């Protein structure tokens, strides 16, 4: 049973009930939360709300105004209600025994009371199970992990993972689950001994898991000269069956001084099983679609090439700062991009303190690479390297000054500034990390201030592209509502270091003015 929610939410209730956040001249929200099954009122529901701003591209999700329902399930909450600033409100309801609920309503000018009536909440789900097939069933760790479906709102309010222990009879029990799919694993002493790809608590309230067989995998790891490789790591991974499911690391092992290892691996279809053998300074070896019984007993690892370098950095860096060496294939084009799918990420990324002027990059193939020196306060500097032929220490000077890209966004018809516009800038591959995904690229965007101004600092002198998104809001007298229109504009900036005036809605084709 997951107790985390029970520990946190009562604290939230107490803090919310201690002082409801009231806003003068605001809109008051009223409602009653009831159980969807029996219609009974629900006390202690944490109710959080916030008004959404007219000119914001992204809806506000801070939920700064909060309270808790009383014994009869009712609540009242006041939020800002200036029609020139806000156009809608969002409400979130949270309770440890009920599924989270999200409501959204448009706001009307001069309306200061919203009666939401009865709001039904569904109870969270439970799952009981029994493990069989083992003599000692007590203390097994049963883990549930939500499938990664981005459309599931529940993932924003529910714990992604839940864990429970079996009793002496092998029984386990989960509560506070949501009506979506989970992956279930059972582990003992850090080794996964059962894997169930899909569990849906809305469709099954009780399950029985019979532990499958375990297979013993023995082997040895050697280098190119057939010498044993000690302390190499061996990983066995069970891969997901669906795009939204989860992989699981079944077991790990470490080679001894003689290069030997032994591990117990859950019996798995070869198409879902992979093995990885790795050690720092060596090239990792990965086997896909593994049949344990057909694996070679001796696994060779090839030692990588080490590239050494010496850097000259700016003198004004903080003593605790770091510089990073990022390694790319030699043929990659260092072009700026606004496309989140065009992620030319580095192969390797290693950081070093600026107090050390030398660096070593281990584990490279005998190929050609481009190395970039980057860091806070350091202008990106690249150098081409032939790892196969490199025998000397590279010398790299990375002390060029940084620059700032700044501007002001204006409406073309009125020359008025555009506040809260989202300005995204193109990124270069040297700015990415090996683990970057499209969802992590929000660090390359800012919002304009009340004067429509924006700024990107600490940039390498280069050309950039900008994508500007803004909201144009017009009040319609007939509907007595604001009509919001999204405005997009993409422009190319030839060089940073100056201030640009960018017009939205301009029809003459002029993209910007300096």
Describe this structure in words.
A hairpin with a 2-residue loop joins β26 (368-375) and β27. By secondary structure, this protein is mostly beta strands. Strands 3-2-5-6 form a four-stranded antiparallel sheet. Strands 10-9-12-13 form a four-stranded antiparallel sheet, with no helix packed on it. A four-stranded antiparallel sheet has the order 17-16-19-20, with no helix packed on it. It has one helix at 4-18; strands at residues 27-35, 46-53, 65-68, 74-79, 86-95, 98-106, 113-121, 125-132, 141-146, 161-165, 171-177, 182-188, 191-199, 206-210, 214-222, 233-238, 248-254, 260-266, 273-278, 285-287, 298-300, 305-312, 322-329, 348-353, 358-364, 368-375, 378-386, 394-397, 403-411, 422-425, 445-447, 453-459, 464-476, 481-493, 499-504, 512-513. The protein is 3% helix and 49% strand. The chain has one helix and 36 strands.
């Amino acid at each position: 049973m997951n107790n985390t929610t029970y520990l946190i939410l009562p604290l939230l209730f107490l803090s919310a009930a201690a002082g409801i956040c009231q806003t003068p001249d605001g809109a008051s929200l009223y409602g009653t939360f009831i159980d969807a099954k029996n219609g009974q009122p629900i006390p202690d529901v944490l109710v959080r709300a916030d008004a959404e701003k007219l000119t914001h591209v992204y809806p506000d999700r801070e939920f700064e105004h909060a309270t808790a329902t009383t014994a009869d399930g009712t609540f009242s909450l006041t939020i800002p209600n200036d029609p020139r600033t806000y156009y809608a409100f969002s409400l979130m309801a949270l309770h440890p025994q009920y599924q989270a609920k999200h409501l959204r309503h448009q706001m009307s000018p001069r309306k200061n009371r919203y009666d939401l009536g009865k709001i039904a909440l569904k109870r969270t789900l439970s799952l009981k199970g029994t493990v069989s097939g083992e003599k000692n069933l007590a203390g097994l760790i049963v883990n549930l992990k939500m499938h990664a479906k981005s459309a599931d709102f529940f993932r924003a309010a529910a714990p992604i993972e839940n864990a429970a222990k079996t009793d002496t009879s092998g029984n386990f029990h989960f509560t506070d689950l949501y009506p979506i799919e989970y992956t279930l694993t059972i582990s003992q002493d850090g080794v996964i001994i059962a894997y169930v790809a899909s569990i849906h608590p809305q469709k099954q309230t009780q399950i029985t898991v019979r532990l499958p067989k375990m297979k013993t995998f023995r082997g040895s790891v050697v280098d190119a000269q057939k010498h044993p490789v000690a302390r190499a790591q061996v990983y066995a991974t069970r891969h997901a069956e669906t795009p939204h499911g989860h992989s699981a690391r079944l077991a790990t092992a470490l080679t001894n001084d003689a290069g030997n290892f032994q591990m117990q691996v859950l019996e798995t279809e070869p198409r879902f099983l992979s093995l990885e053998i790795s050690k720092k300074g060596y090239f990792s070896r990965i086997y896909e679609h593994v049949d344990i019984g057909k694996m070679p007993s001796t696994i060779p690892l090839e030692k990588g090439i080490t590239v050494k370098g010496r850097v000259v950095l700016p003198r004004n860096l903080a003593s605790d700062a770091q510089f990073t060496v990022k390694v790319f294939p030699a043929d990659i084009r260092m072009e700026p991009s606004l496309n989140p799918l065009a992620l030319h990420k580095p192969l390797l990324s290693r950081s070093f303190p600026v107090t050390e002027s030398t660096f070593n990059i281990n584990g490279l193939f005998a190929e050609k690479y481009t190395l970039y020196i980057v860091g806070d306060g350091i202008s990106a500097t690249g150098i081409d390297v032939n790892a196969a032929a490199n025998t000397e220490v590279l010398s790299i000077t990375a002390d060029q000054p940084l620059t700032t890209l700044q501007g002001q966004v204006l409406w073309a018809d009125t020359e008025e500034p555009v506040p809260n516009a989202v300005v995204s800038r193109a990124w270069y591959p040297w700015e990415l990390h090996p683990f970057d995904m499209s969802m992590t690229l929000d660090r390359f965007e800012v919002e304009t201030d009340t004067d429509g101004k924006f700024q990107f600092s600490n940039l390498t002198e280069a050309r950039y592209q900008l994508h500007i998104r803004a909201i144009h809001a017009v009040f319609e007298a007939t509907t007595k509502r604001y009509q919001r229109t999204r405005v997009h504009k993409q422009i190319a900036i030839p060089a940073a270091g100056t201030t640009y005036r960018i017009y939205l809605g301009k029809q003459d084709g002029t993209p910007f003015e300096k």
